[in-house]
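OP here, attaching both records as promised.
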Amino acid sequence: MKRVQIGNKQYNLCESVNDINDKRFNYFKMYMLKSLEGIDRPLFKATLQQATDFFNQSKYFQAFGKFQDYLKAIEFDGYNEDALSKCFALICLRDGEDQLNVDENFLNEKLEEMWQEGLTRGFVEGSVQNFTISSPLSFGQYSAMLEEVTEKLDQTFWDGLRTLQGNPQPDLND
């Protein structure tokens, strides 16, 4: 772990899986998937079960309503960004913080405190990325892929974008 400062407060930042409790790490992975896929797996599982229960009771409108509620939840602005912030809250610890505490309200309160202190999105993204890259066995190819994409994005992406801008695509509706 390393000490970091956000505003006027000091925190301990987990640098790899060697610094994080296994229970907390499982929540980290769940939020990581949520930020990448935009899918809250526990919420989807609960929604599917509730909808199935309604279908079994021939309450089709209520079952459909459960899926509509789920759709609204995943379309909510900032949903995926919030998941990455939660990953950060799990690896950035207050002094004496109980790593077994993974309560969502606790994480939200901690994030509110950090945002008030001036936590930036760049620091969140960089810290989570460094954590995953420092733990390659735990994240499989994800960290290597992310690093490769990030390196190539600057040159390849921008060159491709310039090429497209210089050669407008034909209108397929003609």
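Record two, same layout:
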Amino acid sequence: MRRSLPWISGIALVAVAGVVTLAIPSDDSLTDPFLIRGSTDDERTSRTLRIAVQGSTFADEVAVPASEWSAEGNWLVITVEASAPHTETGAAINLATLTVDGRVFQASERPSDSLLHTPLHVGTALIGPLVFELPADLRHGTAELRLSPTTPTPLLDDVIVITLPLDDLPTTSQVDLIAPEWATP
């Protein structure tokens, strides 16, 4: 028994060291954002944003009639109602990403009539589009829409994450983008 005691003690120490190593959080987790999850049916509120998805559609072309700009492709247009919950300081959707099958797409800044970078106000919601240009074959699966006032990567801040099923979304040939407008109560 005395000969096996050091071996048993050594094995126990290695096992404890393994458990401690697994329990220690990674360096990235010290600065990760706080995810506020929801679905397209939910209104989500973070520190600086209040968000509700009003609708989504795929389009073969998007256009801004006011500026005569248009572009063909595989576009996903997500209509969002957004406001500031408590303060207008820093209240804007400055980072909008769509994650599908591990691939991340940022909202396009090409169309001028987008809710991206539009200042938000307390008590008064704006409704406007967020537009994503996707690869031609990407119209199925489940996506995660992530919205944050911080760019490029939110550190220790809230990020609203909305699950979006792509399979059931309608498809249209063209969507005319309208500048963000005040929501009716």
